[in-house]
Structure of Type I restriction modification DNA specificity domain-containing protein:
Amino acid sequence: MNKLKRLIEELCPNGVKNKKLGEVCDFVNGFAFRSSLFREDGEKIIRITNINGRTVDIDDVKYFYKEDYKTDLEQFSIKNGDILIAMSGATTGKIGCYNYDDISYLNQRIGKFKPHSGILSRRYLYHVLLANTGTLYVLAGGGAQPNLSSTKLMETFEIPVPPFVVQEEIANILDRFAEYAAELQAELQARQEQYEYYRNKLLTFNKIGGQGVIWMKMSELGTFIRGNGLQKKDFTESGIPCIHYGQIYTHYGTFATKIKSYVNSETAKKCKKAHYGDLVFATVSENIDDVCKCVAWLGDEEICISGDSLAFSHDQNPKYIAYYFQTYAFAKYKRSRVTGTKVIRLHQSQLEQFEIPIPPLTEQERIVSILDKFEALVSDLVQGLPAEIAAVKEQYEYYRNKLLSFPKYKLSA
């Protein structure tokens, strides 16, 4: 900070001029790749959906073959460090930095900034744009279908442009905050992936036989009871404990001994119940990942369950079964059998047909004991690291606003 202060006092004692983006930067609009020519492999196409607000994701990209187009596509190429912006739709104004070594290409309604060498630092521009995503959204017209004009962006949007060395020092300071937050996020993700790996490994059995394991359909293993008639408006501060299906993927983990909500006794009389050891499934969701998430109820009282949920009664270790429904095996099974688009559903008949490996109870208990320890460790991280990440991001935004606030330029006397 002291170095930056000295640089500002030495190089811009009269303040800093604002300049239009077009004075210090060029801009490239994306190319209209034809969806009919998308391929299973080839060159990557970066689309609006790949920009998440700070970075560019390449988990769900499209591909094309260069030979399918007569246009020289190199002008639309994206290289490591390039700064992209979403130009339309709900993501308008979102900024992403492309942090990959392989080259990709811009799809339409995405733009790429090309700062003038020695005039505008690319990393400085990145932080300035992140600080102004709301302004860029308004510049696009806001509303339900904003549409940002590249001409308007480059000819009207102004940014402070201090000397290049000052820009670089500001970028260095802000990069350190961003890098630390990214390191914390990567550590959290790594621990979660490690836990998922060992959970899947412990719960993978040879289907041919051996290990004292038998494979059983859920319909053979126990009995499903469908919930009924319980809505969020029925919740009370006290009374008979209940679980609404929506709470299964927003509030509960693998198992629960305490309940978040209650209903009065009259409402409870109409509801189906789950008992100790039952699994409660949410059979509908807005996404495939959450549909049929379940929680093992390990409390002493019976609980009411809502519509769009199922209670599963059985004589196995309830945690073992709950953990198994978190595996890749079930994720793969349900993806091929869910129905719906906006509302995703897995029907009871499909859930009943899902086969699950059943080792002896002693082995189930051993597996559960190991997974409980893993889950406790990950839970501590999930509670601690996100709070630290949020604190670092808050610090980053504080210092970004502070460092990007320059005295207005004044002509020297």
In short: Residues 83 and 97 are 5 Å apart (CA to CA).
